[in-house]
Amino acid sequence: MADNPGFNEHIGSSFAVRENVERKSQKAMKCFNFVAHLLVLLVFIVGLIGGILIGIYAYHGISSKSSCQDQPYQYTDRQASATTMPTTNIQQCPNRNPQDNTPYESSLFAPLTKKEMQTVSEILWQRNYITTIGREPRSLKESFILYIYLHPPIKEDAIKYLYDNGTNPGRYARVHIQRGAEQVPDIMEYKVGPLGSFTGITVTPLTRPGEIHFNSRPYDALEVKAINDILKTDMKALETLMRESFDGATYPEDLFIFYDNGPPGMKGTERETRFIIGFGTPEDEDVLYLLPLSGTVHCPWTNVSEWYPHSYYYLNQGPYRTVFDLVSAYNSNIIRKVRLPAGYRNTLRKTRYPKRDIFLPLREHADQPGARSYMPQGPRFSISGTKVKWMDWSFHISGGQLKGPALFDIRFKGSRIAYELAVNDISLVYGMDSSGHNSIIYMDATYGIMGGDTPTTILRDVDCPSYAAVLNTSYWNSADQKAVDMESICIFEADEQEALWRHYTASFAGGMRNRHLIVRVPVVIGNYDYTFEFHFYLDGKIYAKGKATGYILSSFWDENNPHAGRDKTRDAFGYRVSDFHTGPIHDHMFGFKVDMDVIDSNNSLEVIHWKAGDILDALKTQSTITAVPPYFIYNQTRYLEYETLQREQGFRLNYDAQKFFVVVNDNKKNRWGVKRGYHIAPLATGAQSLSEAHPAMKALSFSKYHVTVTKRKEEESFLSSIYDINRMDNPKGHLELMLNNESIINEDIVNWVTVGLLHIPTSEDVPMTTRVESGFMLKPFNFFDTTASFDMPQYFEDESNSEREPAFAECIEPKL
């Protein structure tokens, strides 16, 4: 076929055609490629210009005064794309519930349950201790329950039960009853129990009739409602004044009455409630924006018909005997007036609410999830009822409505470290130039630390990580005479992502990651949120601390205040923090009970004085030397002086004469013959600056001392009384009453530790104060023979050895 000329001619013609077609195709393809490249280039240029314009808008547009300024900032959801990454080969981390089903009722120390509180109320109702049950009291002339919480067992009985196979002491409730139905009303406290059944329950008085005066009682919802009713007429009379002064605001639509301007009078036998007007409603009180209109209500005893308002002030001008006297002076233009600008009220919600400003661009990468930690093989702690175990630590979690969280029977490596570590009170003393709330003094246990006006609920991923275990507690709501459950305590292991210890040399490298267990308890008390924490470390340390955040209590800024100077940015009481408000100075002093039991209850307190001076001064503390040895190159040194404290005493920290406070067991020595002990170390802390002449200093006596040691007594269970701030002229339960010079050598002793914060509010505290804190450390002090953490896996590397923490497979964070 190859010799066939026709075929060859046909083949040649076909190739010619094909070549012609291919040439045309190539020419067309070149043309197409040129057009395509041109289009790509055009798209790129348009995209580049558009990107630049968008970038310029994103950078400048939001803050510019354009017609688009009311449009919220838009951003892409990078988080969504991050969470959809392939995970086909990665399994979810193993997980288990660290909590068992052991009921709280089986523990000596667990907080009272809702059921137990109900049992107590029924017992007291049946035995005529109260006149109302299960409903809101209708009158102050009724007798009803104010508080119910655990009454801890007698320590001696508890120790015998826990360590010596003694009898179970049982669970008891402590109950406060407001006895308005009595001929002479008062407050009584009772011990009710043992709980568990209605049979065999006794009701034992803890106070005498009349011992707690009715007028020194804490505030309750019934009293507040009665005062609100009394003030309705006066609020109506002030309608024009409030509209003109406060941007058209009316009561109760736009304004509320703030009562918590404690204390209620200077004497426990009297009762006067100061009030101040503020923007907001009773359901949404706004202490950030209190206004210059105030007064006082005379409100003693139970006969509400005899109560009356008096002593009105407007812009610190007064007192006016009645509201009508104030209105007359206002209408006659004989007093200074304030006029808030029109529309001012409408700006408050935006500035008050701590919500992200949607009109501001997010910070770079803020739309991506932040760093997290979780448990790759499940929790390493366990909880039985309220008893916690972790890494040779064990303790019982407890707490009460008034005094706050507490831990009992704290052990490490089988040894008892402390019998009780507990929050007891928080004091605040304000300074401000305001007729409505000058000289405010709070003792927060009076309002209830774990269960006051606002029940606390754990905010997961805010208060605690999502993997934390959460415990419920209950508190007694006196307003409706019922127990209320709340999620209030979380427990979790934390990774500080730092070294507990480390060392690097030419021959080895070693270290241990600082992981520890945290018990965290957030609480809400009025405008402030507090968080109390107890940290347990692998080397035997315990860190206790209190943190504060929330709204500041404001004071109205009066530009023409005759007491102020020329500086309109601040005064003697604080800085201007908004258009019409200042942030008044105050403190937060946290009072803790620290009942150390170093091995057992027979302890002493050593005070080690950290000193500096001449060589002979140092050496003479231990010998009768008369000349400085020649090997000292100069005549100055640091040295210690040791003192075993003989009698009860309180100490204030003085950085010019620093001290170590060490609880020691005289009868227990370590391998080196040194008394085993624990160091109580207050960390960064403020100090009480009030003088002894201040009328509240007796009630606040716990805030005078950073460390106080007393002989332990069952009748001296707390460092303060919840009534004392309401009876400042005759306080009966404060710390200084315990200081009666008793011997504390080789005794069961208690240390009362106070640490705190001095707060000068600034503009950064509006709308929200970010976390500030203070605390103290309990640190082993010759308690062990060596560093206590060397029974744990760690990082170590030398020429012949290599060790690491236990490895784990990559896994996905488990869902609860």
From TrEMBL:
Modification after translation: Topaquinone (TPQ) is generated by copper-dependent autoxidation of a specific tyrosyl residue.
Transport found in the keyword field: no
A Pfam match: Cu_amine_oxid
Class of enzymatic activity (EC top level): oxidoreductase
Protein's UniProt keywords contain Transmembrane: yes
Biological-process GO terms, alphabetical: amine metabolic process
Chain ranges of the Copper amine oxidase catalytic domain: 373-788
Active-site positions on this chain: D444, Y528
Residue intervals passing through the bilayer: 34-59
Residues annotated with 2',4',5'-topaquinone modification: Y528
Keywords: Copper, Membrane, Metal-binding, Oxidoreductase, TPQ, Transmembrane, Transmembrane helix
Molecular functions per Gene Ontology: metal ion binding; oxidoreductase activity
Source organism superkingdom: Eukaryota
Co-factor(s): Cu cation
Cofactor binding comment, as recorded: Contains 1 topaquinone per subunit.
Listed EC numbers: 1.4.3.-
PROSITE patterns found in the cross-reference section: COPPER_AMINE_OXID_2
Similarity comment: Belongs to the copper/topaquinone oxidase family.
Protein name in UniProt: Amine oxidase
Species this protein is from: Sinanodonta woodiana
